[in-house]
Design goal:
single chain, 249 residues, alpha+beta, Serine Threonine Protein Phosphatase 5, Tetratricopeptide repeat, SH3 type barrels, five-stranded antiparallel sheet, two-stranded antiparallel ribbon, 8 helices, 7 strands, 61% helix, 15% strand, flat
């Protein structure tokens, strides 16, 4: 019995030592990443944009702020397409203010390369990403609660009751559509066309006929990958492009 207790105590001590060492290691890693991030910021402030970009590349994991700053460096270096791709990547988990700054920067960079603006539907979906998913979920539940409240409560008169029920029902449908779009945007893979006049083929080979030509810097939806080809959707058109033609964001 005493031996079992001693073994249990030793196991507990070993676990605590391992936990302490792992905690110290994680803290040291976080400190190192923070130092790299601050060094990259200083290089950017000193207008050493190439060195700053290389320093940001060493920061792991790359959150929206790091990706946004990498886009700034690429823009300063004249790599406008690369900047657009990195700002798009930064928008994924960005706060509304950073998301809006990235959107504004993308518009400026697109003008630099004379790129066509995104279709309204794509721009609308990107703007929707600034709305936190939790807010939409809570709003959806709140509207449903109001709908059931007015459905069971007939103290407001039949005329006003039907009006509020119809209004809430439309709100439920609208909020539901927004939730579906938001969920889809979270699981959807996207890419940026990195070359000018990229051919969209009907199949995963250049022997297929060309559906259309994609403008440079276009944001596309990636649906499938087959070897060296991506099946994409752009502006209600679907087809295949070679993977060298785009950057996944």
């Amino acid at each position: 019995m005493g031996r079992c207790i001693r073994e249990a105590i030793m196991i507990k001590k070993t676990f605590l030592v391992c936990f302490f060492v792992c905690g110290i290691s994680s803290y040291g890693h976080a400190q190192t990443m923070q130092e790299k991030f601050l060094r990259a910021n200083q290089l950017y402030d000193d207008k050493e944009y190439k060195a700053a970009y290389e320093a940001y590349q060493l920061v792991e994991p790359k959150d929206s702020v790091v990706l946004y700053n990498m886009g700034n460096c690429s823009y300063r270096l004249g790599n406008y397409l690369q900047a657009i791709a990195e700002w798009h990547q930064a928008q994924k988990d960005a706060q509304p203010s950073l998301h809006e700054m990235a959107r504004s920067n993308i518009a400026v960079a697109e003008k630099k390369i004379n790129a066509a603006g995104q279709p309204f539907s794509v721009a609308a979906c990107q703007s929707l990403q600034t709305v936190p998913l939790l807010w939409l979920q809570l709003m959806f539940l709140f509207i449903w609660f109001g709908f059931f409240f007015f459905l069971k409560n007939d103290n407001h008169g039949k005329k006003y009751r039907m009006f509020f029920l119809a209004l809430l029902f439309l709100a439920i449908i609208s909020c539901g559509i927004l939730l579906v779009i938001q969920y889809k945007s979270l699981v959807q893979h996207k890419g940026i066309i990195m070359k000018s006049n990229v051919s969209l083929f009907a199949g995963p080979d250049e022997q297929y006929h060309v559906v259309t030509s994609l403008p440079q810097a276009s944001c596309v939806e990636i649906n499938e990958q087959r070897q060296e080809w991506y099946k994409i959707r752009y502006n209600n058109m679907a087809g295949w492009v070679h993977k060298d033609s785009l950057t996944v964001i």
